[in-house]
Model the fold of this input.
Amino acid sequence: MPCTVKRAMAGALAVLIAAAGTTVVHAEKLLPAQAAADAKAVRLAPISPWVVDYDDNKCSLLRTFGSEEDKHILMLDQGAPDSSILMGMAGSAVKPFQRTGRIHLGTFADKPLELVKNPSYGDLELYGPAVMLSIFMREGEWEPGARVQPSKAQEAAAGVDRIVIRRGSKILSYETGNLKEPFVVMHDCLTNLLTSWGLDAAEHAHYTPPALTNENAVARKLFETYPPDALEAGEQGSFRVRLIVEKDGSISDCFVEEATKVDDLRPAVCKEMLRSKFVPALGVDGQPIRSFYVTMITYRVS
Done:
């Protein structure tokens, strides 16, 4: 579950989002299609096909929307084959949704919009204002609280045909079309990631992920790394961290990817994440296996 460290440091917060879960609570009964149909809603149609980016450390679904003169982008990022998604939206129509801790998100056609707390903000080159949401995807829902096997993401994505965000009377709808087929390709990319990290993809088809046992202590240490210059400048940033967890629960590798553009925020994230203590992952036979752990870390000034 998400862990927020609150200490008196001019309003700075370090948020460790375990396995990428932004805080989400059910809010209202408005369905995505109903929100998109509002007369004030901005509806962005696609102007490109889906593109799957096969990176060494993540897989990304990318698609542009709007017009050639005013392009917007939607990014669905996975840094490992689990149920966590980093959702990024950028473009001129995203600007009204920045600088607020509360955004309503609608994804599944038959599920109402939900209140998403603690989104991250930044600017994306070529597109401008950006909002980042870290969520879980499981069959029928995208929310924190449960991890599923990666193949289940395809079944879940079949229930999505648009992605809607709302802030008060402002509504923005990315008219994505059904997401099942793009997530089939995403699954293949994620399977390749495991192999490139030296992990057994077959073992991870059905497994129990490693469990972080000292989350609060790690989050506290991360808080203490917040650079004074970044604090004074009001810098905020998000980072995705991937650890390789060995059969004995030890950590053999750490990789950090910056999720939002920041200028001065360069905390020693891996140094602190290497203090993590884990119960190792278990294979289908109940025996420990070499595996991975992914989390989002968000530094925020309140």
User: Anything to note?
Assistant: Residues 1-27, 139-148 have pLDDT under 50 and may be disordered.
